[in-house]
Specification:
This protein has 459 residues and is of the alpha+beta class. Helices cover 30% and strands 18% of the residues.
């Protein structure tokens, strides 16, 4: 394409995090006030949040407690502390959380075969936690059912049947997921500066891991050996690492195996931690001459228009922009069925990898200051051209939020500033002031992984 090309581009390097931000108790106190206010606005007498190992984000947002081996419940009613229900192992572990809550040991949340000697009926425990007959109760699982045009069904509840049945003894129960996950107004859609700083630290880790992987991966390595170069440090993951080369790469999501990477392989790697995810895809070659002749135009046919669309995504996003505007900016370049775009061109990210997305066709939902967003445009050609991929995270921050971020987190702010400069000078993407790039490989797209100094650039 005329406006983008493969060029010599400096491989990004912004360093690893030194300072690790944490969420203090005051953040959780503020969240509980906002939740109680939102409950009143929606006519809810109580909210119950269900969480488990795979779906921890809502309950962790409210308490700082993320379930490990067990499920957990949080009961929120006005006029008293929230009550966290945890199992045998989670009950003592909950002392690590910074949120304000009372604890209840409810052993049925424990793994099978563990003691149940202190178990009381769930209805009794819920009553002691503040539920009363005749209440209107919102139950937040981990998502809800929506139609294509965004109509939400409050009776479709993603939570265990035993819990729904127990709550119905106290009153009317509806799905309250949108309190937390609405793509424009959800409590988790808009983040405090402290939370954004945590996300930036996580994104620095994930993006540096992807960078190290690409620079070190070579034919002859097993996929397991290649992953070791990412230097994982134990930060909690939000998803399994997806990395594969060769025949499985077209599926995108498999975990690594003992298979050895071969010259010419298509290859993909994605790494997600709580608060961040980065992904890249390409070929294990030095240049286009090493590709099969039938796809020797890989850059021209797929990578260049894909990169142009990603650059348009960065041009379009901003505070106050409608999600449909971002969608149109991307799809104006990738509407051809060849590209196989089947998902939204971006979404909200939090402790979970995908919260919701305002970026849909004709969406009038507005992007707001405090949002953490993913540039996540996935072409699935279903052909030998395989795919290309830039998945990186940003935050949107107005003047006040940017000032607070720079003052409170100068180390992270220095990385953000350097990334903005890199994107403008090396990649050719000049960002609006409110866009804070959290990835340390911001829009860096090397199609041929044995030549990482060659990457896509906009003129």
């Amino acid at each position: 394409m005329a406006d983008v090309r493969l060029a010599e581009v400096a491989v990004p390097e912004f360093g690893d995090p030194v300072f690790e931000p944490v969420l203090p108790p005051a953040v959780f106190a503020g969240r509980m006030k906002r939740l109680l206010s939102r409950m009143e606005e929606n006519g809810l007498d109580a909210v119950v949040i269900y969480g488990d190992r795979e779906h921890a984000a809502n309950i962790a947002w409210a308490t700082g407690y993320d379930p490990r081996f067990e499920e957990a419940l949080l009961v929120v009613t006005p006029g008293r502390k929230p009550v966290l229900f945890a199992g045998n192992e989670g009950y003592p572990y909950a002392e690590c959380a910074n949120g304000g809550f009372d604890r209840v040991l409810w052993q049925p949340l424990s793994l099978m075969g563990q003691p149940r000697d202190k178990m009381r009926p769930l209805a009794d425990e819920l009553r002691a936690a503040g539920l009363r007959k005749g209440m209107t109760i919102g139950l937040a699982g981990w998502k809800g059912f929506e139609t294509e045009d965004g109509v939400f069904d409050p009776d479709w509840i993603e939570a265990p049947h035993y819990l729904v049945r127990a709550l119905q003894e106290f009153g009317e129960v509806s799905n309250a997921a949108l309190l937390f996950m609405h793509p424009e107004h959800g409590l988790r859609a808009i983040n405090e500066v402290e939370q954004l700083a945590c996300f930036e630290a996580a994104a620095t880790r994930t993006s540096n891991g992807i960078r190290r992987f690409i620079l070190a991966a070579r034919p002859g390595m097993s996929e397991y050996q290649a992953i070791q170069n990412m230097a994982l440090d134990g930060f909690p993951q939000s998803v399994h690492i997806n990395m594969c080369a060769g025949p499985r790469a077209k599926y995108g999501l498999p975990s690594p195996s003992s298979r050895k990477i071969e010259m010419g392989d298509p290859i993909v790697v994605g790494f997600g931690l709580m608060g961040a995810l980065n992904c890249r895809a390409g070929f294990m070659v030095e240049n286009a001459s090493q590709l099969p002749a039938r796809i020797s135009d890989y850059v021209e046919k797929l990578v260049a228009p894909y990169f142009a669309a990603a650059a348009s995504w960065y041009d379009a996003v901003g505070v106050g922009v409608a999600g449909g505007t971002v969608y149109d900016a991307v799809m104006s370049r990738l509407a051809d069925p060849f590209f196989g775009i089947g998902l939204n061109p971006g979404h909200l990210i939090h402790l979970d990898e995908w919260v919701h997305s305002p970026m849909k066709k004709n969406s009038t939902q507005r992007l707001r200051s405090g949002m953490a967003l993913q540039c996540d445009i996935i072409p699935a050609t279903g052909t030998d051209y395989f795919m290309s991929n830039i998945e990186d995270g940003i935050a949107l921050a107005d003047d006040e939020l940017r000032s607070a971020f720079a003052k409170m987190y100068p180390e992270a702010w220095a990385r953000i500033t350097a990334r903005r400069t890199y994107m403008a000078r090396e990649i050719g993407i000049a960002l609006k002031p409110e866009i804070l790039p959290f990835s340390s490989i911001p829009a860096w797209l090397p199609p041929f992984w044995m030549s990482p100094g060659q990457a896509m650039k906009r003129e």
